[in-house]
Design brief:
Structural class: mainly alpha
InterPro entries: Cyt_c-like_dom, Cyt_c-like_dom_sf, Cytochrom_C550, PsbV_cyt_c550-like
Low-confidence stretches: 11-29
Organism: Limnofasciculus baicalensis BBK-W-15
Distance between the termini: 60 Å
Shape: globular
CATH superfamily: Cytochrome c-like domain
Membrane topology: Peripheral membrane protein
Protein name: Photosystem II cytochrome PsbV2
Oligomer: single chain
CATH topology: Cytochrome Bc1 Complex, Chain D, domain 2
Strand order of the largest sheet: 1-2
CATH architecture: Orthogonal Bundle
Strand content: under 5%
Largest sheet: 2 strands, antiparallel
Pfam family, one: Cytochrom_C550
Helix content: 40-55%
Number of helices: 6
CATH class: Mainly Alpha
Length: 165
């Protein structure tokens, strides 16, 4: 009787282990997609983002935005947590603030241009709050993914760039 109970318990534990293993394995379709990108940016398929403010768009995959998020975490998060701008809180990464900059930064090319050559919000002088990102440090493809993450977060992420988040 004890032996039968032991076998039943072992069998139950084995079934439970297999079931839990199946639940924790990611599906291949979502393997390279960051959970934040799926949940808060609402991206599970490629999205078209404004390229130049002139009607042209460029598609970015969920994996591109996940790579952009990683770049943001590694290089921008210290000053821009949650889309805020800690050195100058009036110039957040909220969509309306990006659009109001001179030149506008609410498109991929505008954000890339700013990161390559940071200027003050009114565009009159070089900004010393943000560091310059030369091509030798971050190639065009990478910086566009970073810009795409920032732009999509400004569009969709709850509380992104808000005064209180």
């Amino acid at each position: 009787m004890l032996r039968q109970l032991f076998r039943s318990t072992r069998c139950l534990l084995l079934v439970l282990f297999i079931y839990m293993s199946l639940l924790t394995v990611s599906s291949p379709a979502h393997a390279g997609i960051d959970k934040y990108v799926r949940q808060y940016l609402r991206v599970i398929e490629p999205v078209a983002l404004d390229l130049d403010g002139q009607g042209q768009t460029k598609e970015f995959s969920p994996e591109d935005l996940s790579a952009g998020k990683e770049l943001f975490q590694n290089h921008c998060l210290n000053c821009h947590v949650g889309g805020a701008t800690l050195p100058n809180p009036t110039e957040s990464l909220a969509l309306d603030r990006l659009a109001g900059a001179t030149p506008p930064r609410d498109n991929i090319n505008g954000l890339v241009a700013f990161m390559r050559e940071p200027m003050t919000y009114d565009g009159t002088m070089e900004s010393f709050f943000c560091r310059r990102v030369p091509e030798t440090w971050m190639p065009q493809e990478q910086i566009e993914k970073l810009a795409a993450f920032v732009l999509r977060a400004a569009q969709k992420a709850p509380g992104w760039g808000a005064e209180q988040f």
